[in-house]
Specification:
Elements: E1 11-18, H1 23-39, E2 43-51, H2 63-76, E3 80-83, H3 89-98, E4 103-106, H4 107-118, H5 122-136, H6 164-196, E5 201-207, H7 213-221, E6 238-245, E7 248-254, H8 264-269, H9 271-279, E8 282-288, H10 294-305, E9 315-320, H11 328-337, E10 342-343, H12 352-365, E11 367-374, H13 379-388, E12 390-397, E13 400-408, H14 409-418
Parallel strand pairs: 1-2, 1-3, 3-4, 5-7, 5-8, 8-9, 9-10
Antiparallel strand pairs: 6-7, 11-13, 12-13
Helix pairs in contact: 1-4, 4-5, 5-6, 6-9
Length: 421
């Protein structure tokens, strides 16, 4: 029998700076950080918050509070301290000097670690590796300077060679360049797949992580996308063909979830994934209404999507998990405040009929009646007209058939190009 080494969860202390007027926001952010730590496999044993006018440029915390944190970590036998904001390379280095025996990471490093765990496809793995390399580059330290060596040979006698840190930086830059090239190739392949779906109405699910997007996809598509109560469980874009009724078919995609203080490296490297949202005909903005911080979540989603050229009319706001609200009055309040939004429970299938009807209406708004003169033997074209649109009328005109078809404008253009009409 093979002996397996059992590793206990790392014991973590969370640390944050509360800026003036941001105390409540900081508490909410730490609650989210705790969930992130748990998703990464740690157990949170304590938290420490310092109220300051601004983050200390050298140690993040004031020197007195930093000493308090060090003593707390020793007393609690902590393995890791997780800071709620991204530390500058200098801040991290200075904190590590004060606490050399304790692992020091920031929110960005923690999120990157979770993304590494959950990345499954080549695209997601490449995106995460790129984000990690860009995060690491400015954080390489001069801990290898003792390896500085002389390079012998003609033209190099007596001159210092590269230090290990310079070699590492050069190798890391080369790795970043290669990963970007790999990601561009993958992105081109995915763009080709997206073009093949352009003859259908494309709907993308966007929202805060753990808002129930995958559950909603399963309900609408009758599929079995993995659903688990963990942050960032979905990294890879999942696409399903959904038949809403006889004449309305969509491609439904689930995208990576958003979160507060998402590392800019991840936003940049996951841009190809989020392009699914950028090119969609309609976006369902999914919000967990049972979360007391849902308004902040909505702002986070909007802030990320501002980087993309998406008209406001292409959104439908969907408040999910209404079954988890304590009172029906809360649902009524939401409906009064957001009259255009839909309140649903994807888990229980509540409110989905109205939502699918709204999607069908959006499809119809983008569709028009088009006329096609078709040779009787053009079976493939006739099949596509019936497949992608609704044939309203067909009449013989001389030796051809005139089809009046209710069809999306983009689909019409695609079919005309395909059949050279």
């Amino acid at each position: 029998m093979t002996n397996q080494i059992r590793r206990d969860p790392e014991r973590a202390i969370l640390c944050a700076v509360a800026l003036p007027g941001k105390a409540e926001h900081t508490e909410h952010s730490l609650e989210e950080l705790e969930r992130l730590a748990e998703t990464a496999g740690a157990v949170v044993i304590d938290t420490l918050i310092q109220s300051r006018e601004g983050m200390h440029p050298v140690h993040y915390l004031g020197t007195g509070k930093l000493e308090e944190l060090r003593l707390l970590a020793e007393e609690q036998e902590a393995d890791v301290i997780i800071f709620d904001d991204e530390l500058t390379p200098a801040q991290q280095k200075n904190i590590e000097k004060e606490m050399p025996d304790i692992k020091i990471i920031d929110r960005s490093a923690l999120i990157l670690d979770i993304f590494t765990i959950h990345a499954k496809t080549r695209e997601a793995k490449t995106q995460v590796r790129l984000a990690e390399a860009e995060y690491l580059l400015p954080r390489l330290t001069r801990q290898w300077t003792h390896l500085e060596r002389q390079v012998g040979g003609i033209g190099a006698r007596g001159g210092p060679g590269e230090t290990q840190i310079e070699i590492d930086r050069r190798l890391l830059r080369e790795r970043i360049k290669k990963l970007k090239a790999d990601l561009e190739k993958i992105s081109t392949q995915l763009d080709t797949k997206r073009k093949s779906r352009s003859v259908r109405f494309n709907v993308a699910l966007v929202g805060y992580t753990n808002a129930g997007k995958s559950t909603l996809m399963n309900r609408l598509a009758g599929s079995s996308v993995e659903v688990e109560d963990q942050l960032f469980k979905t990294l890879d874009t999942t696409v399903r063909r959904v038949q809403l009724d006889k004449t309305h078919t969509i491609y439904l995609s689930d995208t990576v979830g958003f979160i507060q203080k998402l590392p800019h490296q991840l936003v940049a490297s996951f841009r190809s994934t989020l392009r699914e949202a950028e090119t969609a005909d309609l976006l369902l903005k999914v919000i967990d209404i049972s979360d007391e911080n849902f308004s902040e979540h909505m702002k986070t989603i909007d802030d990320v999507l501002k980087e993309f050229d998406i008209p406001e009319k292409r959104f439908i706001t969907v408040f999910n998990k209404t079954d988890k609200l304590e009172s029906a009055e809360n649902v009524k309040f939401v409906k009064r405040t957001y009259p255009e939004a839909f309140c649903i429970s994807a888990e229980r299938g509540i409110g989905l009929d109205k939502l699918t009807q709204a999607i069908r209406s959006r499809i119809d708004e983008s569709a028009y009646v088009h006329h096609f003169y078709v040779e009787p033997d053009e079976g493939k074209l006739i099949a596509d007209l019936n497949r992608y649109g609704e044939i309203l009328e067909s009449t013989f005109v001389e030796d051809k058939i005139l089809f009046k078809v209710f069809l999306d404008e983009a689909v019409c253009d695609s079919l005309k190009k395909k059949y050279q009409l």
